[in-house]
Each structure stands twice: as structure tokens, then as C-alpha cells.
Specification:
single chain, alpha/beta, Carbamate kinase, eight-stranded mixed sheet, two-stranded antiparallel sheet, 11 helices, 16 strands, 42% helix
């Protein structure tokens, strides 16, 4: 009992620090694949919301989109952690992201008393993108080639007016990773990139990636090589060393952009682990990887996670 009371006292410091702050949570496809994991995340979001923390949820659903693509006779193509999106694959993304998964997340939150609103980046002009031109990409095998990602959008701007209405009123927006250009052409957007763009535009205190990995690993095959704390120069070194591969690359790149745009702290944690989000936020030891900018790095020891 004493241990429980002491834990509550320790958490008080964080609850005061986080009150009325905006947290952006990005749910990975591995979390969405497990009803138990999604339910556990929903419980944790309900607790954050009860503490007057303003939560925005962003999700993609890569594994689910790949599975449906295969059922439809479409072979998924992923380059450096990013999906090549043909017109047919875009239709799959619409069905999976804005349909099944968005509904599943909103329903899970409702089960735990959270008022949530399902959205895409298209709604109310939330996110405006342009079609990505063919670009040179170095894949996980170190091969550089020009890739046309197809119906994929890069973010031009974020209009937060709708979120500025929803968040202060206790609603949790759930945004799937689709957006449109100024002419209304729908495009697939990498969900990690979208989450970083929204976090930067909202001035979020935290951007948290709930993934299928324990955090950022120096050796992707060895969980004991977890990087608990990193600054931008550490991430750049890891990217150059090619130890960051697959779907982790867009996350690390997005963390770098978010920190540079003013997000105080970004985190990469295993969203499938029970209570990983609460452990990361309310304990000094955390549960995954925390990434901060230079100013935050200097105050890390005294300000907590």
C-alpha cells in the first residue's frame, strides 16, 4: 500500500505539469491489430483525459492495408518504410484507414467514456498536401534509386481551427492518415509524418509513437540495445549508421522534424505493452525512447519526462 501511495505522490508532479497540455498519440498498425492492445490504450487515454490533458490520436494501419491489398490481388510495395500508393492501393487506404480502423479506435475510446470524433486530414481542410514527385531513396539494403510513390501527399500546411474547437471542449479527435490537395484530390499520407505535422502546428508538449517495438534500438534484433534518451545528433548518427530500418525510419525522421518545429519531447514506446504509455509519462524511468531538442536536453534531469 505504501508503494502505491508513493507512486501516486510521484505522479502528482507530472499531472500538474501536463494539465491543459496537448499530447499527440500516433497508433501503429501493430497496436490496432490487437483488440486487447487497443483497449489498453483506450483506458490510458481515458485517464489522461480525466487529468485535463488534451489528447489527439493519429493512426495509419499499414499491416491492415497490406492484408487487404493482398486479398484484392495487389502486392504491397514498401520502400524505406513508406508505402508506394497506386490508385488501387489508395482505394484500399480509404477503406481501411478512414473506415474500419477509424471506427474501431473511436469505438474503443467510447467504451471507456471518452468523447472522440473520427476525422481524416481532409475534414475542414485540416491538412493540405501536394503529390510527392519522384524522389531518390536509399532503401534498407543501401541501394539508392528513384521512386515514384504514386498517390502520396507531402504536407504543405495544417489548419488547426477545427481542432482548436474540439480539444478545449474535451473531445479527442481521431485522425486517419488521408489528406487532400487544394483541388480536393485525396492522397495517402505517412501517419508518422502526419502526426509530427499536427503536433508541430498545435504546439503539442508531447508526440508519442505507440509501436510494435520497445523503442528505438541500436540493433533492431536486440531489445537490450534500447536507446532510452536521445537528442537530434544521436538520431542523425543512428540514421547514418543504417541501424534504423523499415518502419522505424519514418518515425525517427518525424521525431527530428517535430523537435525542430517546437514539440518539447517525442517518445517511441511499445503500445502493445500494458500501461506503457502511463509508465512513459508518469515515471522517471519511462518505458521506451524519449527524444528532445537541445534546450530540453539541458533541463532533462530536473524537469522529468
Amino acid at each position: 500500500m505504501t508503494e502505491l501511495v508513493n507512486g501516486l505522490k510521484d505522479a502528482l508532479e507530472y499531472t500538474r505539469l501536463y494539465r491543459d497540455q496537448i499530447f499527440v498519440l500516433k497508433l501503429g498498425g501493430e497496436v490496432l491489430s490487437s483488440p486487447e492492445a487497443l483497449d489498453n490504450v483506450a483506458v490510458q487515454v481515458a485517464l489522461l483525459e480525466s487529468l485535463s490533458i488534451r489528447v489527439l490520436v493519429v493512426h495509419g494501419g499499414g499491416p491492415q492495408a497490406s492484408a487487404l491489398s493482398r486479398q484484392m490481388g495487389l502486392q504491397p510495395e514498401i520502400v524505406a518504410g513508406r508505402r508506394v500508393t497506386s490508385p488501387a492501393v489508395l482505394e484500399v487506404a480509404k477503406m481501411v484507414y478512414a473506415g474500419q480502423l477509424n471506427v474501431d479506435v473511436v469505438a474503443a475510446l467510447r467504451r471507456h467514456g471518452v468523447s472522440s470524433v473520427g476525422l481524416t486530414g481532409i475534414d475542414a481542410g485540416l491538412v493540405t498536401v501536394h503529390r510527392r514527385p519522384p524522389v531518390e531513396v536509399t532503401d534498407d539494403d543501401g541501394i539508392t534509386r528513384t521512386v515514384d510513390f504514386g498517390e502520396v501527399g507531402d504536407v504543405d500546411s495544417v489548419d488547426t481551427r477545427l481542432l482548436d474547437v474540439l480539444l478545449p471542449r474535451g473531445h479527442v479527435p481521431v485522425v486517419s492518415s488521408l489528406a487532400a490537395d487544394s483541388e480536393g484530390r485525396v492522397m495517402n499520407v505517412n501517419a508518422d509524418t502526419l502526426a509530427a505535422a499536427l503536433a508541430g502546428a498545435l504546439g503539442a508538449q508531447k508526440l508519442i509513437y505507440l509501436t510494435g517495438a520497445p523503442g528505438l534500438l541500436r540493433d533492431p534484433d536486440d531489445p537490450s540495445t534500447l536507446v532510452a534518451f536521445a537528442a537530434p545528433e544521436d538520431l542523425q548518427a543512428l540514421l547514418l549508421s543504417k541501424s534504423v530500418k523499415g518502419g522505424m525510419r519514418p518515425k525517427v525522421e518525424a521525431c527530428l522534424r517535430a523537435v525542430k518545429s517546437g514539440v518539447r519531447r517525442t517518445h517511441i514506446i511499445d503500445g502493445r505493452t500494458p500501461d506503457a504509455l502511463l509508465l512513459e509519462l508518469f515515471t522517471g524511468g519511462g518505458s521506451g525512447t524519449m527524444i528532445v531538442g537541445e534546450r530540453e536536453k539541458r533541463t532533462y534531469e530536473t524537469a522529468g519526462r
